[in-house]
Amino acid sequence: MLPSVALSLNEITIRYGEVIAVDHLSLNVERGEIFGLLGPNGSGKSSMLAAAAGVLTPIEGTVSVDGICRRQKPAEFASRIGLVPQELALYEELSAIENLRFFGRLYGMGRRELRSRVQFVLEHVGLLERANDLVGKLSGGMKQRINLAVALLHGPSVLLLDEPTVALDTVSRDTLFATLYRLRDEGHSIILTTHLLDEAEQWCDRIGILQRGSLVAVGKPSELTRSTLPDALMYGHLRSHLPITTIQAVQEQMPPEVELEITGRRVRLSAPTSELLGSALAILLGQGVEFVSFRTPPAGLEHLFRGESVPAVSNLRS
Amino acid sequence: MPQAWRLIWNLARKDWLLFFADRRAALLCFTVPIILASLFGLIFDRPSDSMAGTMRLKLLVVDEDKTDTTRRMIHDLNSGRAEVQVVDRATAESLMESRHYGVTLVLPHGFTSREAFSRPRVEMLYHPLSAMESQWAEGIVTEIVMKFKAREFLEPLGVEVSRIDKPLVVERHAAAFAGQQRFNSYSHSFSGMTLQYLLFWGMESGLLLLRERQSGVWRRLRSAPVPLWALLAGRAFATGTIALLQVLTTFSFGYVAFGVTITGSWLGFLLLAFAISVLASATGLLVAAIGGTEARARSVCILAILAVSMLGGLWLPTFLLPNWVQELSLSLPTTWAMRGLDGLTWQGQSLGVVWPCVLAVAGFAMLFLVLAVSRFAWSEARRKRGWAT
């Protein structure tokens, strides 16, 4: 019987020279949950994930998976972890199946086991028919799914995904999360890092917010958002990239109280009142801006993310 | 298969797949050294026996004396080892300036007068880059003048001068020792270019590893239950086997197309081929271990490989280099590898003679391996502790 806690980080500290990237951080991730690690760039998300994967050794603290400590049984620990690095961690000159076979053999899998596992993971990520295609010739979303398939190949308890949706379009992102949900339901624990609030709120069972190497809040998205006063906020996804002239025209008309951020095809609007938010949206639509989707989540997490307040419900050892 | 060996085999197999994934690049890897070696061999190919008979020195002569004697001397020069053109001094200077000729012999006024001819004096003008040719010309002119002086003194005494025109007959033969062939420029160029290209292949392999270390693949590999030594051993094994294949392919082509043969010990050749293949893979690991960024590593490596190729005699024989450079070149693995290959290909040497070369190359390979692995272990330990390397 496996313990209910899949991954346990206990008081870990990571330093880069004189800079402390992660400071005495503790976290337990339950079996069969998707845990989102949220924080701005440089907050220590990737370092924490690297420590959990065994790629970085914390100067203090311990990391264990299924109760197995990395320092005591490194090989057994490694076989229970599946890492999906932020960059594509595949050989683009080889086919998907060649990549899978290579990485599978590193985990000591025999020929028969490897054949069935390769088939299983390719089916799982929906790319069985593209097995013999060169990775370099697959689309970005397909590459990311093969990236995930490699991490799943040896049947790890814990999957670690570093910014898995970077450079993915909406359809690929939805496909990826559908796969992650299936994996969660099969009992895998999934920890992913992201700096996109809406993504974390929408997809994760629990969220941890990192600021300057410390976890400032851990909980379900609904718990965290209740903890602070909301203001008016909207996330949108554009049909296409906006020309610079349109962006300039929108910015000229926008009331000074409204904050507008356009990153690629993502739009973030925040305003002190919902009326102002509505008029800001009208300005965008008036300039012919077309949205694929938009939504208005409660803004509590936004405050946390930006380090404006620390909520009362923060539960660092949940 | 033991677990460790299976790991290394799997890692090496991945590198072979990557190498042959781009078939054209892989083909070039084998054909480029063959093309280079063939070109070098062709350029430096000199049939040694016929060389002395066919080569004539191009020589300008300014005849300021304009006597029958000087005309006969010029005729004799032209029918011997020089190809003479008679010009005036201004034309001679102009032709030398444009590098059409390198040496001019000036026969001055009164050169053949009785007083002057007792101790004749000539002027030799030469281009600064033709000092060696001027010495050759001096020898030819001395021989002709001696002949004329002998006639002057001996003919009145009734001696048959034609008998002392050429006081000795020189028979030239390239010496051949037991089991040794005549120098074959193709043997030298195939040895040199194979070695040079192996170093480039080692560099390429190292740069691939350097790129891999900076990518997500390395993080994935380091999170897998694979020790660092297995990753390095897999890479070294793959690089070494491809290097060995390159040596065998290049020499096979040399044998079929240009008659490059192993006249010495076959065992010695195989041992040396193995040692230089290990040297190539060790060079690759060293490049990956200390390379820093890929662009920096590439620039430094190209410079280093070209330097050790030239100093090690891979392009031209080392005896053409200054003495101090020849002594310095003994500290390079390329010098020993080249000596060994020359010895085993056209010099017909036995293993007993070339073993110091094999041992020296293997020693350098081991040294590079130890340095690379130590540096890797150190930088990976730092990286794991969070220090950027």
What labels would you give this structure?
A: 318 residues, alpha/beta, Alpha-Beta Plaits, 2 domains, six-stranded mixed β-sheet, 11 helices, 14 strands, globular, disordered C terminus, B: 389 residues, mainly alpha, abc type-2 transporter like fold, 16 helices, 4 strands
Q: Your description of this structure?
A:
The complex is a heterodimer of chains A (318) and B (389). By secondary structure, chain A is α/β, with parallel strands linked by helices. Chain A has 2 domains: 222 residues, 3-Layer(aba) Sandwich (Rossmann fold), CATH 3.40.50; 66 residues, 2-Layer Sandwich (Alpha-Beta Plaits). Chain A has 11 helices and 14 strands. In chain A, the strands form 3 sheets. Chain A has a 6-stranded mixed beta sheet with strand order 6-7-8-3-9-10, sandwiched between helices. In chain A, helix 3 packs across helix 4 and helix 4 packs across helix 5. Chain A is globular and about 65 Å long. Chain B folds into 2 domains: 247 residues; 111 residues, 3-Layer(aba) Sandwich (abc type-2 transporter like fold). In chain B, strands 2-1-3-4 form a 4-stranded mixed beta sheet, with helices on both faces. In chain B, helix 1 packs across helix 11, helix 4 crosses helix 7 and helix 12 packs parallel to helix 16.
Cα(first) to Cα(last) distance of chain B is 35 Å
String of helices and strands of chain A = EEEHEEHEHHHEHEHEEHEHEEHEH
Mean of pLDDT of chain B: 86
Q: What is the number of E strands of chain A?
A: 14
Structural class of chain B: mainly alpha
Name the helix and strand elements of chain B from N-terminus to C-terminus, one letter apiece: HHHEHEHEHEHHHHHHHHHH
Low-confidence stretches of chain A: 308-318
CATH architecture of the largest domain in chain A: 3-Layer(aba) Sandwich
User: For the record, what CATH class of the largest domain in chain A applies?
Assistant: Alpha Beta
In spatial order, strands of the major sheet of chain B run: 2-1-3-4
The figure for the number of domains of chain A is 2
Regarding quaternary structure, how should these chains be classified?
heterodimer
- The pLDDT mean of chain A sits at 84
Q: How many DSSP-defined strands of chain B?
A: 4
- Structural shape of chain B: elongated
Radius of gyration of chain A: 21 Å
Question: Beta-strand level of the residues of chain A, as a percent range?
Answer: 25-35%
Q: DSSP helix count of chain A?
A: 11
Helix content of chain B: 55-70%
